[in-house]
Amino acid sequence: MATITALKAYDLRFPTSLEAHGSDAMHTDPDYSCGYVVITTDAGDGLEGHGLTFTCGRGTEVVLVAIQSLSFLLVGKKLEDIYGNFSGFWRALTSESQMRWIGPEKGVIHLATAAIVNALWDLWAKREGKPLWKLLVDMEPEKLVSCIDFRYISDVLTKEEAVEMLKKNQEGKADREKEMLEKGYPAYITSAGWLGYSEDEIRRRCREGLAQGWTRFKVKVGADLADDVRRCGLIREEIGWDNTMMVDANQRWDVQESIDHMKRLAEFKPLWIEEPTSPDDALGHATIAKALNPLGIGVATGEQCQNRVIFKQMLQAGGLQFCQIDSCRMGGVNEVVSVILMAAKFGVPVCPHAGGVGLCQMVQHLAVFDYISVSASLDNRVCEFADHLHENFKEAIVIKNASYVLPKAAGYSTEMKPESIRDYQYPNGAVWQQLFKEGKFTAP
Ligand SMILES: C[C@H](O)[C@@H](O)[C@@H](O)[C@H](O)C(=O)O
Ligand SMILES: [Mg+2]
Question: Where are the domains of the chain?
Fold first, then answer.
């Protein structure tokens, strides 16, 4: 029996705003950051659970406090009790009678939950000696479903249905796993189209992407319509018309504006418009989808879809044609799996959101699990990739032929290199001290 002895939390930030990496119409100067959690136990096996939640610079300190405030629910707990009744533990974490008031299940407190829960899954997978996707794929349907809290979603998906869906897909699983191991999971690239990049930089990155074999490119829009027309035009010039383009407005528009602007951008044939409007507006998304679907444009959303309840409503209302689960926005793997199952029930493809710091590391596992165990289809499915900060991770993602190569190391691929954890701590890590000295950032 192993008991959790400590939970440490770190504020790690990377100065990506210096080169406009990750910039969009709403987040014009993101410094990719995370609340980073390390869980240790008395097992004596040297294994630690590493988990993170993605943030954008300022505000990470708030997430950190939330993680620390929740830690009393873990320290002293037996791992067997957590993994033996994971949905019960997840509910204890998300429904703690005083902490839930600052959520519930949304915002900072849910980001903090994600970091902790992701660390617990990393530890579980390491203890089983499997990469997370394999842990999920090999788990008995009943056991996997027992990790999910069905409260608030049982009106559209019951435990029994979820077990049934997973059981139905047992057939063909071995073949799909073999196929994934051979070919990897298909991806698209975002790193050519950040909003703050100059025209030359966009052209250079498109050419580089094409040379590397990328065929699907995502472009940021939303700040200014005339500029969007210009940027979409130049990207089509670079990538041609046989390749796929998606556009992402990061919630910049009203509902009617979304429809009007996208009618203007329809000539560039985008596959989807991502986050056109407020991430909470399920009915607004449905209105947009109704207007744009006849033009061949789907609505995609999810990176700021705060929990399974909003996803449920989006799916019920026909508000999304591409379901972009995020590994950190919701309460970790348990809740993500429930959304993957709901999306399958509604016949909506899951196309995970990634990028940031560590998101690609995590969602590769979730996408592969979706294909092998749940959807059994690759139609209209593609996982995001953005080429930043992977070098900080011990088991960095590998891309080959524009696809994610399946991770083989045990865990959730969330563990950073010790020197990255040391040097990027904000504000005392060596990297930040140097940036303050050079006057590139102001010390807090
Ligand atoms: C601030 C971030 O880079 C976002 O722009 C990013 O997550 C983006 O929406 C994406 O879809 O990759
Ligand atoms: Mg996006």
Answer: 4-131+419-437, 173-412
